[in-house]
Amino acid sequence: MKESRAELEKVSGLLDSALWKNAQALKSKPAEVEDATNLLNATRSAFKHQAVNHASALTLLHARNRTELLDTVSLIFRQGTEIEKCNREVLPLTGPRSR
Predict the structure, then answer these.
(1) Which pLDDT value is given to residue 89?
(2) b vs e for 45-63, b when ≥16 Cβ sit within 10 Å of the residue's Cβ?
(3) What's the pLDDT tens digit per position in 38-58?
(4) Could you read off the pLDDT of 3-36 as tens digits, one per residue?
(5) Dist. CA 11–CA 38, nearest whole Å
(6) In the Cβ-directed half-sphere of 16, how many Cα atoms lie within 13 Å?
(7) Distances from the Cα of 73 to the Cα of 1, 69, 76, 78, 87, angstroms
(8) How far apart are CA 82 and CA 87, in angstroms?
(9) Is the model more confident about 95 or about 45?
(10) Around Cβ 18, how many Cβ atoms within 10 Å?
């Protein structure tokens, strides 16, 4: 997860640089404009791919956490059911409690 976020931040920085370079390109120099535009397009594509990868990693993490939570809740209910069974078996043997 940390690697995914670090990679996204890295590509984000590269995208910022490419945007800045594209904005600073002299319009009187077509070759410079074309290079800056190509760099921007490539970096933008890389950023989009990394953003999707990061979103996918987040989704998997949340799904795993949700599964672990449901497993824990299920375990608690099973244990509660077992305790209730034991109480039903023991109470008839001991009789009602006096208060």
Answers:
(1) 75
(2) ebbeebeeebeebeeeeee
(3) 999 999 999 999 999 999 999
(4) 889 999 999 999 999 999 999 998 899 999 999 9
(5) 16
(6) 6
(7) 25, 6, 5, 9, 21
(8) 9
(9) 45
(10) 21
